[in-house]
Predict the structure.
Amino acid sequence: MPDNPAIQGVREAFLAQFPAASSDQALKALHDAFLSRKSGQLTALMKTLSTLAPEERRDFGQAVNTLKTEIETAIDEKRAALEATRQPSGGVDVTLPGRTLPMGRIHPLMRVRRDVEDIFTHMGYEILEGPEVEDDFHNFEALNMPPDHPARDMQDTLYLDAPVAGGTWGAHRFEGGQRGTVPEAQVRAATLLRTHTSAMQIRYMKTFPPPVRIIVPGRVYRRDNLDRSHTPMFQQFEGLVVGEGITLADLKGTLEAMMRALFGEGVKVRLRPSFFPYTEPSAEVDVSCRACGGSGCGTCKQTGWLEILGSGMVHPAVFEAVGYDPDKYTGFAFGMGMERVAMLRYGVDDIRLFYENDLRFLEQFPV
Amino acid sequence: MRVLVSWLRDFVDVTASPDEIAKTMSVRGFAVEGLEHIDWSSPESNIAKADAVIDFEVTGNRPDCMSVMGMAREIATAFNLPMRRPVARGKSSGEEEDGSSLRLASLKAVEKSDIDVIIENGDLCPRYAGAVADVTVGPSPGWMQARLQASGVRPISNIVDVTNYVLLEMGQPMHAFDFSKLEGAQIRVRTAASGESMTTLDGEKRELTDDMLVIADAQRPVAVAGVMGGAASEVADGTTVIVLESACFNPLSVRRTSRKLMLKTEASMRFERGLDPRLPVTAMERACALLETIGAGKARATVVDRYPQRIEPLTLKLRRSKISGLLGTSVPEGDVKRILESLGFTLREATESGWDVTVPTRRVDVTREVDLIEEVARHYGFDKLPSTFPALTFAPPPNDPRIGRARHLRTVMTAAGFSEAMTFGFVASAAAAPFASEGELAPIANPLSENFAVLRPSALPSLVDAVAHNRRREQRDVRLFEVGNRFTRSTGERRSIACAWTGAASLEHWSGGARDVDFFDMKGIVERVGEALRLEVTTDTRRENWLVPGRSAAVLARGERIGVMGQLTPAIAEAHGLPANDAVYVAEIDLDAAENLAPKEDMRIEALPRYPSVTRDISILIDAALSADAVRATARAAAPPTLVQIREFDRYQGKGIPEGKVSLSLRLTFRASDRTLTDAEVHSAMEAIVAALIERHGAVQR
């Protein structure tokens, strides 16, 4: 029944309105007017089905469906055409490189330092910095190295022409009624460049009563010429733990934990007796060679071990110098060079690379 | 200390191989610096053919181990073996009469022999032994030369070789004088008179000062005590009578003298660490026995031994509880006794709590209980210690906030494309000079080189060096920063962040748009650093000699100067090895100053705006010299509080703009927190602003 006048009428009405519908909204309105399930004109046509003779119903229904498809197709096509006109023109070669965001690198020594700080923060240590210029008392004398002590030769010192005020330290501990009382927060007349971070052992212990659990990272200076394994300035960190019943076994356990965190679970740690004036007993600490896994190679001079830090139990003379009772308290201390760790971790064989700041070196480290 | 293994075996029957000895001793406190295997090929050698030299690193506290005997004692303890000691002839029957037997000559102590010994400074020389011997100078036998050579000592003559042999074997420095050259047959141990001088064995003329101890004859100094003998009394080919010296000198005095003369010898290295006051006579007996054994001569059987104040051994308490308290493990009593006794300590069971331990006089390093515990731990083995963990008995205090701040700055700077540099804390004077007046520089008294002559007054000179380093290595675009310390006389040690930028402002891209860094790129970085420090920073014109005029500014926060920024002058760029026409922008901010200014409390958020804002653009023609800051200030002063932001969005000079003028376009944003602004309100605000700009600056609205 294609020429049913009612159907024809609806079709003509649609065709009359369709050309003017040139927006999404107009198309939507048109769609609703004709195809809405509730109020659409085609729905109305279908509702007349029951009034027809049974034999006419099939043809009528078919004709309405054909019209429905025709209207849907027309609206969809027009909608797609409309959408196409709104897209920006011009494609791009998606294989060309993108614009790189500039990203600098953190210095490898600072990566090591960050790791060490995190390891010890995790273990409940206080991390703090101290002055780089020091006086003789804190750098040597209180550390059981009186003037003319031969051990001073171990650390060739750079002296200042005239005293300079050193940097402050520990300000965060003197605010808000913390337990510190007498702030010796500044070196008033520094006469030398500190040769080790151990100087802060003295400053800290003179200021705060035990127990102590600190890590002091920072730059230190020695009168060394530049070569593959020496620089006149390098980075160290100092560890100090003091309390009642602190033992050499505690030092061993702590160092093992640090080395595993720095070099991986498989690393072996060895303590060797040695000598430092400010610790007794003293121990050099070795880690198993990463290059050969401990079987012996050129890197470790066939020993399977690499020296990594110096440590020991705090010498009673140091406790006496800072006013701690050496009969009541014991403690351990250790000092490690960050360059050494970075060299082992990253396979750097020339320490000077850390101080040349060559971007070709720095940019090898991940962002 | 190079130690010949076959020589060690004179004192201890250690059957372990040299490698095993080296390995064991390296965990007993003696790091091994080298091991050389030796094959003695000389047929007349009476030394075992396969041999080795172990180079032990003897720590500064163990002068007693700077000898074959000292090391043998340690090895005997480590391997749990008995130690054989040299004995006087007749006291032992089993000794072989060959060159390596451990024979001592019997010398009778006398008040005065052919030589007279007078100690004038007893505090600087606790003991002095002298003996006279008749000798025939010639070469020493092959075995002795071989041992000396293997130990790193050059053979000279039988007499000198014997003194060196005893030095190496027992650790006692000795000296031989030609008796005929000693005026008045006298040895006087005294301090030098000021103005005295002498020529030492190395041929150098030494000016002596009155704090130096010398050995003199009746007239003049013949040796610098404990350091080096004099050329005038040197044993020579024609010498027939010698005086042997075996003495003990004050360590501090020897050290000072050696340092002052800049003369370090095998003798001074031992004396300055402290030697056994009981050793000189035994060493003398050993030397005299050796002279005889090798046929170099014969001692006159007496020794003058000046030892006015006998030095008694120290007795220390060793408490059992302290051993375990310090080590964290209990060492079996049998081990404690075995170790200490083997090392020469005498233990007396004093009380329940522990022992009284007598310390051998050679152990100058053992003065406290803890030193004894170290001896026990060292030979018990650090490897036997358990691994424990110190209990955390208190709430850890917060970390130094400067550490977190520096980390934050690193994140911000790397995100801005800057890589972190690490440079030395000292620079060349010339490099430092532009950054601080001369009186402000802190020179180093004993610099290694001119490049490290003064503490840096700014991190910039070394940072610019790093830029130049990269520039010379095909890196045109360089952005570096450093967080570190700097030093001036008036302000002392201060922290700063320094940055340097040369080359492209953005990374090269095929789509173009590349341009080189300019002032405002660097200013953006400075502002970003400010944000990271919770400070709003501004800049103001400030002339620095090392910055290009007009591109040089002070960095301010809360009205205080906290830094400086600008373009480096071509002269300074060139001085650092950069091409003069490279534009290098730098900035440095004082972190200590910034920290003081930064808010301490937590930030509080502002409520989000509930009403829309209104923006208005305005273009004005003003004097080119007028600062944007001044324009902004005028606009702000004239505007109602609803003006929330002013931004410069265009600045134009050139065609269509009169000479000396500039067209500046501003975008003003108005907003009220309690209502929607009306057109009329904004209109009147704009009128007031324009009127003020015209009145204050003679601006012309375009």
In short: Residues 633 and 646 of chain B are 10 Å apart (CA to CA).
